[in-house]
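To the team - NAI complex, inputs and output below.
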Amino acid sequence: MSEVRFDDRVAVVTGAGGGLGRAHALLLASRGAKVVVNDLGGARDGDGAGGSNMADKVVDEIKAAGGEAVANYDGVDTYAGGENIIKTAVDAFGKVDIVIANAGILRDRAFHNLEEADWDKIFAVHVKGSFDVIQPAFRLMRQQNYGRIIVTTSNAGLYGNFGQANYSSAKTALLGLASTLELEGAKYNIKANVIAPVAASRLTEDVMPPAVLEKLLPEFVSPVVAYLVSEECQVSGNIFTAGGGYVGRAAIVESKGAVLPGITIEAVRDNIDKISDMTGAEEFSNAFDEVSKRLATATAAS
Ligand code: NAI
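Output:
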């Protein structure tokens, strides 16, 4: 069986000083990738940045195992930080082939207690933090006609979670980013996919019981991410869920719906079950296809 390799590939992993990012970085490096280990070494809620220790430790681990890596300590939540993370890859290794936007924090509160700063900080790290790193890399990827991108969502982003209105909203925004990067990157052999992981880390250490966490090592998620950023991967714009050895695909689908000529409020009320029936639900690859197909259905029925 041939091994999936990353020789001559340069990967940037954000938030790679611990948890999932560390596991992604170690796995890619063990298969030949040159890795930029980014982590600003902050606290779980994003306060108290500045420690270089976390990224350095992972770089040391990679080097001790015979791999190549450099550390970067910028926060992903500023554009200058994102640019510098990509510059670190170019300066050290000459290019960037892979970006795994993984850095993340939590500021959980019930929606009615959420403060503006908790909303803004979560969006700054997860949404803008993905943009800040991916855009400078995407420009280089277009020029070299090659790129592999991962954004990190959450099952909270896919399905919602009590106390995570800010986090789940930010995580859902990343689905839109990957869907559009799929379209804009296609011509340049740039693939962008989404991972929805579940793993034991400092973000989840008090969310799940120890017996469950033991079965959810980050190392069970990284092979999925590594495949998706490999040259062999040809899928793009898809969402994969992974944890504890389980791997699945999630998708946004739309019901066959109902055509309601002369539509009224009452017609919507009377057809709400038919509108909502997901039998034969469809997945669309872009916004234009969805609108065209729905208009064609309405026109055919009228
Ligand atoms: P973690 O806390 O172990 O790792 C996140 C890393 O990001 C930390 O090392 C932190 O220092 C770094 N970071 C935070 N803000 C940063 C910034 N502005 N710039 C650079 N680095 C920054 O947590 P974990 O669980 O490994 O999370 C990784 C990603 O996976 C996050 O995006 C998280 O939201 C997501 N996720 C994790 C799940 C899980 O079950 N662990 C579930 C769903 C999503």
